[in-house]
């Protein structure tokens, strides 16, 4: 792949949720290597500090710091953004990356179904709180990580909390569809208000991250072989995120994913969302419901 994304990020600041492992870690390492100041926004600070040490071993002069955030707790998100605003006066890249995948039925501290609450509502709230910094930063970008799982999914407005029935995969798909719809609707609203910040979505294909674990080191050989064929390493899975954040040709609203068969593996390129992600009425309703549930109202004034 020709290196067409921005090579030097010196002087820029990136906030990456879930940056202690997988795609978030690989993105953090890339931004740090290119000279950006990186805020690793993580739930487990010990794991975050270990990940930071790994980055500094490779890039001793990197500017990397660890800050705690729990995407399943609106107060934690508020506390994080208050702390950020006390330390930073600009944010160039907000990478909405952290996520949970197909857990047993459980809820966030605020009573939301865990996947919808942390994957979507948490990042909705985080972005809203940080908008004042983003919109005052030249050429800033919000990148929200979706998934192939958005295909064929739907927003279950009559059962968002799962109280009327819960199945792991449909609720995961719903949360990733919500990520994609949020990214698209945010970009539309930014443009309607003549703000320079842009919003994009991306997906990692099928990548070998902490979301895909066999649970035992002695996994059967056929599973390891299947994984090798189906999954790409996290450093490849992170490329669409990095591309979406830094490629100079992007204008906002794009969806970036791997270019290989089925969009499962490969190098980043423009992808086309499933038709379910293009329903303007659902996007508008999702936005309004998200504001109501989180209590976060975006200020798009200049």
Number of domains: 1
Task: Give the end-to-end Cα distance, rounded to a whole number of Å.
Answer: 38 Å
Main β-sheet description: 8 strands, mixed
| Alpha plus pi helix count | 9
CATH class: Alpha Beta
Protein name: SDR family NAD(P)-dependent oxidoreductase
Pfam family, one: adh_short
Family: Belongs to the short-chain dehydrogenases/reductases (SDR) family.
Organism: Niallia endozanthoxylica
Verbal overview:
It contains nine helices and ten strands. With 302 residues, it is an alpha/beta fold. It has a single domain, classed as Rossmann fold, CATH 3.40.50. Strands 3-2-1-4-5-6-9-10 form an eight-stranded mixed beta sheet, sandwiched between helices. α6 links the parallel β7 and β8 (232-233). α4 packs parallel to α5 (168-192) and α5 packs across α9 (280-294). The chain is globular, with a radius of gyration of 18 Å. The relative contact order is 0.14. Residues 254-273 are annotated as: Disordered.
Outline of the structure:
This protein is an alpha/beta fold and 302 residues long.
Comma- or semicolon-separated keywords:
302 residues; alpha/beta; Rossmann fold; 8-stranded mixed β-sheet; two-stranded parallel ribbon; 14% strand; globular
Question: Can you lay out the helices and strands and say which pair or pack?
Answer:
Blueprint: E1 13-17, H1 22-33, E2 37-42, H2 45-58, E3 63-68, H3 74-87, E4 93-96, H4 114-134, E5 141-145, H5 168-192, E6 198-202, E7 207-208, H6 221-230, E8 232-233, H7 234-237, H8 239-246, E9 255-258, E10 268-270, H9 280-294
Parallel strand pairs: 1-2, 1-4, 2-3, 4-5, 5-6, 6-9, 7-8
Antiparallel strand pairs: 9-10
Helix pairs in contact: 3-4, 4-5, 4-9, 5-9
Region (Disordered): 254-273
Pfam families: adh_short
Protein name: SDR family NAD(P)-dependent oxidoreductase
């Amino acid at each position: 792949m020709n290196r067409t994304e921005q090579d030097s990020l010196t002087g820029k600041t990136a906030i990456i949720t879930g940056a202690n492992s997988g795609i978030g870690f690989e993105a953090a390492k890339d931004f740090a290597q290119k000279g950006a100041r990186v805020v690793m926004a993580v739930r487990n600070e010990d794991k975050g500090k270990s990940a930071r040490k790994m980055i500094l071993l490779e890039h001793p002069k990197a500017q990397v710091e660890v800050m705690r955030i729990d995407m399943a707790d609106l107060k934690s998100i508020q506390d994080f953004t208050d702390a950020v605003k006390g330390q930073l006066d600009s944010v160039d890249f907000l990478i909405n990356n952290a996520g949970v995948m197909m857990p047993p039925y459980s809820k966030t501290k605020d009573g939301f179904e865990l996947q919808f609450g942390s994957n979507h509502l948490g990042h909705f709230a985080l972005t809203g709180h940080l908008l004042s910094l983003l919109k005052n930063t030249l050429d800033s970008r919000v990148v929200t990580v979706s998934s192939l799982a958005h295909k064929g999914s739907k927003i279950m407005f009559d059962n968002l909390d799962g109280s009327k029935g819960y199945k792991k995969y449909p609720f995961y798909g719903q949360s990733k569809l919500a990520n994609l719809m949020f990214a698209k609707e945010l970009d539309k609203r930014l443009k309607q208000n003549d703000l320079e910040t842009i919003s994009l979505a991306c997906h990692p294909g099928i990548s070998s991250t902490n979301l895909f674990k066999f649970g035992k080191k002695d996994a059967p050989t056929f599973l390891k072989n299947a994984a090798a064929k189906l999954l790409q390493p996290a450093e490849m899975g992170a490329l669409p995120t990095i591309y979406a954040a830094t490629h100079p040709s992007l204008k906002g609203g794009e969806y970036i994913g791997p270019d290989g068969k089925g969009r499962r593996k490969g190098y980043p390129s423009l992808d086309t969302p499933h038709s379910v992600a293009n329903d303007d009425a659902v996007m508008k309703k999702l936005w309004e419901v998200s504001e109501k549930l989180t209590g976060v109202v975006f200020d798009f004034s200049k």
